[in-house]
Amino acid sequence: MKPLLQDKLRDCVLTGVIRQCDDCYPGSLPPTGPVYRGSRRRRIDFGLSHCQWPALSVESLAGPSDHLVVAYTFDSKAPLLRRGPRRRSLLPASSPESLEAQGEAWDDSAFQDACQGGDVDRAWQLLSDWAEDLLCEPDPAAVPRSAHWMPVTPSARSTGKRPERSAGLRALLKLLSRLQMGMHRPFDAPLWNRTVKSLAHVRRLVPDMPSIRQTDAASVAQVEALVDTYVEQERTAAKQAWKRTTRDSLAASRAYVKAKADQILAWDKEAAETLAPTSGRHPAVEVDKQAQVWIKKWRSQCSSSSPDTQVDGILSQVVLHCSGSRKGGTRPISVLPVIWRAGARLLNKQLQAWTASWRAHYDSGGVAGTSIDTALQQLAKELQAGASVAVQQDVSSFLDSLEHRTTARILRQFRAATTLVTLFENYCGRSSRIFSMQGALSSEWVQPERGLPQGCPLSPVIAAAVSHCWAAYVLGQEDPLSAKVTGHAYVDDRCLLLRPGLSCCHLRAAVTRSNEFDLAFKLSVSLPKCAVVAKADDLEAQTLAAHLGYQHLPSLEVLGVIVPFDRPWGLLRFSLDKVRMRLRLMRGLHLRLRSSRQLIRSLVVPAMAWAAPYAAPEAKDIDAVKAEILFLCSHQVGKEAARAIFFEVAGWFLEPQFAIDVATLRAMWRVVVRPPEWSDILPLSAGPLSPLTVVPRLTPTLESLGWWMSADCRVLCRRDRLGIERHVHIGFESFRTIVQWLRYAYRARYVAKTGRVWQHKDRGPDAACGLLCPTPSRAADYEFGGHKLVFQEAGADRNLTLAAFGAGCTNWFFNSKGNFESGHATHKCLCGQLHPSRPHLVWSCTHTASLRQGIALPTDRAAERLFARQVPQQPPAPVALDLDGFLEELTEELLPLLTHSKLFVATDGSSKQDVGAIGYALHTTGTTLAVGDSLEDQTPFRMELKAVHLLLRAMCDAVRQSATQSVNCHQLWIVIDCEAVIRAVQGCQGFDYLLLLEQVRHSRRVLGELGIKADFVWTPSHGKKPLWAPPAGLDGAYLRTLNEAADAAAGRCMERRRHLSARAQWHRERQQAVEWEVQALRTVAKVASAYQGYLKTLGHGPREDLFSVVVASAHHGYLQTLGHGPRDDFLSRLLPWLSGLCGSASALLRLCYDAFDSGSLLAATALAVVALRAQFLVGFVLYYFLVFFNVVLASSRLA
């Protein structure tokens, strides 16, 4: 347990100003508070120390009080922590344009000369110094980032010269110190002279400094007061600047939340013992000790008698691949120069062709084309096939143990470019490192003889080559399908899986080969982390584990997931505490909902959904995170906001289970449209790889949604509310369609759990209720479109924001912190009934009838209480008849046009109200065709892409059918007004429409093989860009005319299909629902404002009237000045009259609501507000008037 620090202390600890003494203990310390119900609950006794004086050990002892006594051990003789050099601070962010302009003005001749001469160090120095001048503030005392530096022991700093203080405050502190010293040394004339000489300098910095005539207590008190004022002002300014930064910059907020949450929870991790020294030694001493440990570990173990022949034997059996990963453990992480990291990233991209030449199915990370998914998918397939025994290994300090010479031999064996091998050898031979631990630096730079720097973008690629060697040697080069042992290596994580029905002797042989490899490459495994994984009653596995000295475990722990053989997979290191801490830290930032939403999606959702296709947190953890998210946003949306509306307006990705399901379905989509490379080893008889076999969580996800996949896993299916079977063709439509389906499912779930819609709570016969409408149908659907629009337009209108989420506008909401008595008038409605609810105030109260004029009354409880109208789910697209016949017709129209040497065809896609069509203009404006299809996705982009696809197919068919006649055409120009389609076809990427794009690219290649080159020419639509000119040799006017003809044909076809379609009717109903919801929600906000204004006239908390309190307190003060005898003066007769006058004014305000009829409610409200302000003014004037007379009377009484 760690103590809960106050915010100011926590900030000081996290910024390194002070230390927590408890940090010397890496585990969980016992609570120290008093015993409560049989046990101690909190650790409220702890110590803080100077940043240069860390505690070494801690003990909790019984003492004389009911608290435990905490004792710490310090080393007073330990040296100070060494620090790095002072650096120039960054300037405020500049625009890219200004930086580019300054960059163009730089004279880079010296830099170019250094590069041409091969002097990389000089080139780096010039480039670094120029970048530092460009991005940093001037600081003559700072050490340039390009210069070599050595760690130094910091010197003691004067108390008043902290850099975060202003010059004026530092001058005041120095003056205060001299004055305080002068009070104790009145005889010290030189001290007084120095003080007098400094006054002019201080007054220039602090104009409001008082006159100092002597060193007395009064002067000290004046300067102390001024110091306190300046300190508070600077603290407030710094805090406001920090809040402004975190509010305006999502990057700053994200960095703050991540860093602070990690620091707070760092010592609570289970593996904390391995992340810091536990010997109790001082960091300044321990860092040197750790440096020696790592220097010894990085010392090369190869000699002239090294078993290079064995290494050569292993290399000769290499086929392909690599992998890498790191588990907990004390090891240094390299922080490399930014130019090295940037250059290494560019080099990585250029190495993709090289890594593809040796990549194999058992490679699972570190190089392009592989990932953790690669290993987990193969593992899932093997387990589904019946595998039940595995061996997991963990290589101790894998990256830090790789021999430079041996690794270079591997790169050469894989035929890496000579420049890459030379770069690797030069870096390994010339790199130097320095150690840092808990703020302390080691004494000198060291040069390692082995190991790859962690943090370098090239290290995963090089480590992957070594891991590939291990896999090739251990698993062998036999047919992967007939191999008896399969597996993978991901940096230091290794897994060997025994195929079903085989003996463990094959696993033992594989482990023996793995040990031979480790001996040759000077690697070693960490035995406590190695295990034979099998069922507890597997005797053969128990024997193997005992023989190897490994553990025998029932679950495989690999790549961040737990893989049991008989249960769903789970996350290995999901930290609910970290997620909670991040969400709670967001509360302190007071972010807007839009900013909170982005932070949650970047800091919380990935922690839960990174492995969603394979494993997810437990249900109770998901619910806990959801509760934290709702609580975080409750200060903006109201605590009683309907969850269905909250997630619909704020975004369904804030719902953790929704985000997990989306990630699972996205993995399914990815497997179908882009099968993993390892699937090439599967036999053709197995057919396409099914995502149901390699995505473990896909089946339960589909079952919970009531969805299913087709037999070939190419189509996702569901049944809508009307019983119609709906389909999405994976790779031919957008993934957004599936996300929309998922929104339908989750929206229905949450509406079904919204109690206010389905349940009526009887609050008593006197409670003010709404219309008590009937419950809606369980099959009803809602869009909440009006709620989204109202939230976007709400701005600073608090009542309108709350209305958009179904919150606010209730008696309970406005009186929640008032602590009113049960009979108080604030519990009444405008119409006099008790405890009015939101439906009563909006739909039933007679005094708000004028505000709801022109709005149709609700007909069910969803409209009455959620202000939402039913909108059915989107119906299917209009049916398309004989698409194959249209393709034949298009082919026939193209046949006679093949006589032209250059053929121009304009294509266009049109869509309105989710009904689309495609159109063509074939070489002339007089030949046009158009058609539509019936897929769910009817977006304009897919229509444009589909048009290109059908055209290329028809062209290929036309060329084949014209074998008996001459074909003069050698160039097809596709005239299109959609640049996105051109970029998509000409590129090599894709996700949503990848399979459709592949068909387009394939048809284009086939047409080229048939002798016709197909090119795109972009043409602006609808007369846009009048100065546009086409490529040389083409007529711009002709292209525009052709494009307009295709657009008109597509538009006419779209209108025919849309007219009287179900989707057009659905859009009309949806628009009507949105209009009603917007009108209703605006009314809710107006009613809330009116009721809130009325309640303000009834008092503030349990007090009857603010002005009566003001008068009573003034009266009490006056009576204290007059004694306890009879009072008959003017004021004693005046005060009761004033008190009665104020009480009458308050009563008059209450009566104004009853005096006006309901039609004049707004006027009555405005009058009440004016009277209320006047009452405030009169009350405070009377108060100060009475105080003045109290002082006068008291003075006269004393006289």
Task: Describe this structure as you would to a colleague.
It is a single chain. Helix content is 49%, strand content 9%. The protein has 1199 residues and is of the alpha+beta class. It has seven domains: 1-90 and 112-135, no CATH class; 167-248, no CATH class; 286-567, no CATH class; 573-684 and 692-703 and 735-744, no CATH class; 756-875 and 1069-1098, no CATH class; 883-1059, Ribonuclease H-like superfamily/Ribonuclease H (Nucleotidyltransferase, domain 5, 2-Layer Sandwich); 1142-1196. A five-stranded mixed β-sheet has the order 10-11-7-12-13, sandwiched between helices. Mean pLDDT is 82; it is low at 270-279, 303-329, 1102-1173 and 1183-1199. This is Reverse transcriptase domain-containing protein. Keywords: Membrane, Transmembrane, Transmembrane helix. Residues 327-552 form the Reverse transcriptase domain.
